[in-house]
Amino acid sequence: MNAFTIKDLENLTGIKAHTIRIWEQRYSFLKPRRTDTNIRYYNNEELKKILNIALLNKYGYKISHIDRMSEPEINDKINHLSNALAQHEKVINELIQAMVDMEMDAFEFRLTDYIRQRGIEKSISQIIFPFLERIGVLWMTGHIIPAQEHLVSNIIRQKILVGIDTINTHVHIPKTLLLFLPEGEFHELGLLFVYYMMKSRGIRVIYLGANVPLNDVQQVIGYMKPDFLYTHLTSVSHAFNFDRFLAQSLKRFDSTPMIISGKLALAYERKIPPQIVFKKSLQEVTEFISTIQ
């Protein structure tokens, strides 16, 4: 069983912690346990319940009405939500529920079914990235076990790789981008999606993968002369120093522009050095790729 804090529930559902506390006082659907030091915590079943309740509440159902519903009624109402965004959130909730229960067959089936209906690119932008954003905090705080992270990541990675492998485009853009993750960064799902988008649009990609020393990147640049470098920083090791990485990159790759996206780029508040461009959202990444000619 996983133990989730009220902050975890806030991050996963978008419902503020003080609102969750009010719901606990007024309604009967949440019954948190408490640690020896009187801190609330919630189990898998309570997490799944509040995901469903938050979804109905967001799309028009009063919380007092939801409180009177049985579990089958809640599920039926969710299945009949017609709003497209609500349907996306429903799938994301199902993936979260399968992950916390370690039902990997169910996780893969739901994801595969969505990809079959919508294609890999829409699946990534509508389902996979929002899912990863919502559960990313749990991975960093250790509120899910490493096995869950590895199992989920590997399933998603396989889907993106299949998408990359099956691309067949007659468009050829005479630009080359070198994609890599620096030492200490192993989360390559974001970079793989960038790889997919670039390849599908006819851009030549050199993919070095994760945990690559800058010396190796420098050597490849010397041989292959890419037009841009690209990295996506999600959750690097504690030893990683972002400012040092930027300074060393400028020193080694001063004649090659570098694009950086991901959570670390989003959170960076200092002045950005020349030759480096930050892309702080999926929309900005997509717009950048569309400008490459």
Characterise the protein shown here.
By secondary structure, the protein is an alpha/beta fold. The protein folds into three domains: 1-81, Multidrug-efflux Transporter Regulator, Chain: A, Domain 2 (Orthogonal Bundle); 94-166, Methyltransferase, Methionine Synthase (B12-binding Domains), Chain A, domain 1 (Orthogonal Bundle); 168-291, 3-Layer(aba) Sandwich (Rossmann fold). It is 58% helix and 13% strand. The chain has 14 helices and seven strands. It has helices spanning 6-13, 17-26, 44-58, 63-67, 71-79, 84-100, 104-118, 120-141, 146-165, 189-200, 214-224, 242-252, 263-267, 282-291, and strands at residues 33-34, 40-41, 173-182, 203-212, 228-232, 258-261, 276-279. The strands form two sheets. A five-stranded parallel β-sheet has the order 4-3-5-6-7, sandwiched between helices. α12 links the parallel β5 and β6 (258-261). The protein starts with 5 loop residues before the first helix and ends with a helix. The mean pLDDT is 88.
- DSSP strand count: 7
Strand order of the largest sheet: 4-3-5-6-7
Number of domains: 3
Spans of at least 5 consecutive residues whose pLDDT stays below 50 are none
Q: Main traits of this protein?
A:
3 domains, Multidrug-efflux Transporter Regulator, Chain: A, Domain 2, 293 residues, 5-stranded parallel β-sheet, Methyltransferase, Methionine Synthase (B12-binding Domains), Chain A, domain 1, alpha/beta, two-stranded antiparallel sheet, 14 helices, single chain, Rossmann fold
